[in-house]
Design goal:
heterodimer; A: mainly alpha; 2 domains; 87% helix; extended; B: mainly alpha; 0% strand
Chain lengths: 121, 230
């Protein structure tokens, strides 16, 4: 029974997220809004973590299997990648380095600033 | 007769689940966290389909029901965020600023590079959410007209690249602060990178794991804004 309750809660928040997404003109995906709604509900103690723990952990720990079919869809799309596979790989590698550098330096700088502020007090 | 035997839906599902379990076992046995089950499963399943001459279309149709569960998976990340609420409170300012900057840089760098290299427009759209965990990236990609398959595999490759070279890149860039290292690896290479970040240290792992969901939220807001502005 607790699995059905947990699954029902997750689906319910997903549905609420989809409704909100429609109201926002599909600006943000419904499942992402559902995730935020669930987080808020947990913080406000409207939902108890133990109600969804079992199902949620099962889903997040085994997430990979649910996107294997999508990844296998690459068999149909291989043509698009093959045209410029070197460019594709270059984008993946270079942008990943960009994001790492940007986030890494941002944290280091803000942490430095925060510490200076804390020290001058 | 043989063809009919192979062309049934539960068989394709059983194949997928079986190969997945095997892939997870391989990772646990070897102890190499970077051996992502997806990257092992993919070539194995393709080879089996090829040997048995099962059409790709048949496999994709039979297993498409698994994709439905990605919705609840994303919602379930809300619990992951909740479980990390203490880490959020502790590092609120640095992490939020990192995720905001990271999502903007992530999307802009993809758009700029794709234009410069003359990549197909659809390819560009599919790559825009590439720093985000796969299920959220697929949702974003679907929303802007990208191809979810290309998105999923690109995201996994970003994760693998970041997981393998992330710590070395951090050293080259002289980023030593453990919060910064965790945030960078988690923001750029989501779950696969986080598996590696956990090996670096407790703070790195916690911050990295936290950045997965936050980066997903930030990027799903930034992608439509940046696309509208450009």
């Amino acid at each position: 029974m607790d699995i059905i309750i947990g699954f029902g809660i997750l689906i319910g928040f997903w549905a609420a997220g989809e409704c909100l997404s429609v109201l926002m003109g599909h600006f943000v995906p419904g499942s992402v809004l559902g995730m935020l709604l669930l987080f808020v509900a947990l913080m406000l103690k409207w939902v108890k973590p133990q109600h969804i723990e079992k199902v949620a952990h099962f889903l997040t720990r085994n997430m990979t299997i649910f996107f294997i079919p999508t990844v296998m869809g690459i068999m149909d799309q291989w043509g698009i990648i093959r045209v410029n596979w070197l460019g594709w790989l270059a984008v993946i590698v270079l942008t990943t380095i960009c994001v790492m550098a940007a986030t890494g330096y941002t944290v280091q700088w803000t942490d430095c600033l925060l510490r200076k502020k804390g020290g001058s007090k | 007769m043989m063809r009919e035997l192979l062309m049934n839906q539960p068989l394709m599902l059983a194949l997928t689940i079986g190969v997945y379990i095997l892939a997870v076992r391989i990772r646990t046995r070897s102890g190499i966290m970077l051996l992502n089950p997806m990257l092992i499963s993919m070539p194995v399943i393709i080879t089996i389909l090829w040997i048995c001459r099962i059409p790709a279309q048949h496999y994709l149709q039979s297993t498409s029901m698994l994709s439905f569960m990605l919705g609840p998976c994303v919602v379930a990340l809300g619990l992951t965020l909740y479980e990390q609420r203490l880490t959020i409170r502790q590092y609120l300012v640095p992490i939020l600023s990192a995720v905001l900057v990271g999502s903007v840089v992530g999307v802009l760098s993809v758009v700029a590079l794709c234009r410069w290299l003359g990549l197909d427009q659809m390819m560009g759209l599919s790559l825009e959410p590439k720093s985000v965990t796969v299920p959220i990236a697929m949702e974003i990609s679907k929303g802007i007209g990208g191809n979810t398959s290309i998105t999923a595999i690109s995201v996994a490759l970003c994760g693998l690249f970041g997981g393998i070279f992330g710590p070395a890149i951090m050293k080259i860039l002289h980023v030593k602060n453990p919060i910064a290292v965790g945030a960078a690896i988690g923001s750029a290479s989501h779950g696969i990178g986080t598996a590696r970040a956990m090996e670096l240290g407790a703070i790195e792992g916690a911050v990295s794991g936290l950045c997965i969901a936050l980066m997903g939220v930030a990027t799903s807001v930034m992608v439509p804004i940046i696309n509208a502005l450009l």
